[in-house]
């Protein structure tokens, strides 16, 4: 730095821009006043085009872990455009802040759509509830005003994000154009269920708002909204499906946003960036390097779930984003050595062969010890049935004994790390020591050893699948916490020669990992538990 001069005034520089490390300054004031000019060069990436992937972000220099790569506001924020069964059946969504509401207690005074309360921050914030309010207030309202099904069928917040985008052509044409420039997968969507679902939402918007508007436009000889045909609406739904990034509100409610640069992050099941949102600054996203990134490497995030096996992730990516992932995990039949979808080979008529079957082609599972092959269809049928059994059991708040029974039943067919056993064991380790049927004081040495070994096995799996702890921080942190608590209790009961330094290290690792999710209620609660446990050391 000695020889560097301040980029603003030319004096000897004493600091540099920590983001790009290429601009030098003599003082904070100089750095601040240079930001307007420097911010355009501070970018650590370039936008390039790839034949298969389309546009992507590529590092334009070596980047250190922790560097902020993108920091930007959303073009638009809105409620989710698909609802799960529970949301569809029971709940309403606040038109202002998009939080879930259970009753129709309060309404927006202007448009009369359901809202959470008179203090709703969204009703006062023009970024959240604005131009659409002026628009939906002219809607017909529910056909049967006392019938809950009819009321639910009218206040369709799953159409709201598309409507907000459509209305941007009037409110902010620049933002509208920025969204229209995003990838829509228009051709790939044709004939898919996504297209059909969008079609149904478009019919709703036409019937209730767009057709009446068109009639009014004709009557008055004045066009208010030039673009409102089905083609543009399908394009908007395609853009939302392809680019929207989910945002978890503190309460756990998911909403989504469209971000101009972050939308260009490509997918990898082993991503190299992480991101978080700042709720206070209008859901600004900040994307950070999760590891050192070399010049020329693409920035990547994961569009899918880490704890799904390859076949399920691939199907999900194809169904929602229309491509096949070829990352290191996807092309490895053992899923990075975890055997997350590996089955035990049942062998031939002569008996089991003690081998394991992994997926070796798109259509087949092969054994590593004998010539047996099983079709993907067959595997899907068997694991589908097992999956149902696992889901059913876990939905019934089971006790440890019933989970152990199911693990015993499925174990002859599955690798110990198989994702179905993983799900059961992840619940089981949290129950041993806490469930009323098995508090710590009543656990046998075998129970303790079992809990500890399950935690250790699963920590290896999550470390392989999410080495930077950016996608399943909660799962990983829980495992480390449960391992630490188990070891601590074993030490208290003098069951084993436990190294308390290792217990402390586990808790510190758990704390570090969950700190990225401390903005969420669940994350905060876990962090509190870990901090309480750390007081003992
Ligand atoms: C959020 S957009 C990313 C930006 C997009 N590439 C563009 O040009 O606007 C998601 C789309 O990018 C493409 N894509 C992203 N990651 C990919 C990958 N790993 N392999 C192939 N295509 C990918 C797919 O077409 C996907 O639907």
From TrEMBL:
Keywords: Metal-binding, Zinc, Zinc-finger. The keyword Zinc applies. One of its GO terms (molecular function) is N-methyltransferase activity. Pfam families: SET, zf-MYND. CDD domains: SET_SMYD. InterPro entries: SET_dom, SET_dom_sf, SET_SmydA-8, Znf_MYND. Residues 43-304 form the SET domain. It comes from the Eukaryota. Residues 6-42 form the MYND-type domain. PROSITE patterns: SET, ZF_MYND_1, ZF_MYND_2. The keyword Nucleotide-binding does not apply. This is Protein msta. It comes from Chironomus riparius.
């Amino acid at each position: 730095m000695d020889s560097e001069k301040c980029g603003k005034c030319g004096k000897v520089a004493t600091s540099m821009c920590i983001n790009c490390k290429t601009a030098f300054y003599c003082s904070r004031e100089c750095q601040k006043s240079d930001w307007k000019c420097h911010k355009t060069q501070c970018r650590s990436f370039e936008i390039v085009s790839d034949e298969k992937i389309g546009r992507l972000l590529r590092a334009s220099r070596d980047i250190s872990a922790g560097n902020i790569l993108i920091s930007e506001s959303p073009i638009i924020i809105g409620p989710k455009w698909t609802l799960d069964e529970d949301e569809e059946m029971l709940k309403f969504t606040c038109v202002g802040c998009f939080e879930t509401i259970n009753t129709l207690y309060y309404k927006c005074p202007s448009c009369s759509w359901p809202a959470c309360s008179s203090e709703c921050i969204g009703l006062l914030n023009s970024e959240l509830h604005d131009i659409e309010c002026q628009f939906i207030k002219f809607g017909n309202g529910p056909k049967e005003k006392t019938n809950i099904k009819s009321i639910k069928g009218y206040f369709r917040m799953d159409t709201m994000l598309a409507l907000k985008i459509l209305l941007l052509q009037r409110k902010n044409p620049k933002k509208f154009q920025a969204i229209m420039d995003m990838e829509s997968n228009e051709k790939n969507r044709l004939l898919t269920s996504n297209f059909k679902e969008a079609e149904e939402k478009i019919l709703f918007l036409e019937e209730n708002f767009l057709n009446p508007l068109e009639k009014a436009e004709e009557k008055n000889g004045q066009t208010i909204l030039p673009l409102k045909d089905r083609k543009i609406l399908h394009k908007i739904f395609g853009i939302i499906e392809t680019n929207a990034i989910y945002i978890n509100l503190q309460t756990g409610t998911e909403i989504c946003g469209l971000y101009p640069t972050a939308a260009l992050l490509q997918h990898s099941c082993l991503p190299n960036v992480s991101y978080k949102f700042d709720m206070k600054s209008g859901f600004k996203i900040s994307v950070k390097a999760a590891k050192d990134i070399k010049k020329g490497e693409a920035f990547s995030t994961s569009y899918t779930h880490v704890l799904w096996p390859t076949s399920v992730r691939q199907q999900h990516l194809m169904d929602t984003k229309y491509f096949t992932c070829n990352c290191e995990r996807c092309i490895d039949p053992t899923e990075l050595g975890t055997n997350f979808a590996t089955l035990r080979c049942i062998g031939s008529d002569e008996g089991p062969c003690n081998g394991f079957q992994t997926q070796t082609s798109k259509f087949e599972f092969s054994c590593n010890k004998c010539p047996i092959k099983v079709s993907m269809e067959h595997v899907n049928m068997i694991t589908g049935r097992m999956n149902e059994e696992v889901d059913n059991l876990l939905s019934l708040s089971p006790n440890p004994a019933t989970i152990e029974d199911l693990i015993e039943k499925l174990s002859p067919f599955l690798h110990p790390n198989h994702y179905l056993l993983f799900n059961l064991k992840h619940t089981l380790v949290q129950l041993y020591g806490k469930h009323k049927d098995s508090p710590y004081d009543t656990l046998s040495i075998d129970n303790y050893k079992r809990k500890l070994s399950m935690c250790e096995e699963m920590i290896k799996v999550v470390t392989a699948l999410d080495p930077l702890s950016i996608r399943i921080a909660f799962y990983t942190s829980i495992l480390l916490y449960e391992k630490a608590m188990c070891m601590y209790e074993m030490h208290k009961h003098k069951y084993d020669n436990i190294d308390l330094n290792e217990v402390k290290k586990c808790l510190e690792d758990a704390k570090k990992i969950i700190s990225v999710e401390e903005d969420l209620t669940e994350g905060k609660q876990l962090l509190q538990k870990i901090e309480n446990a750390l007081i003992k050391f």
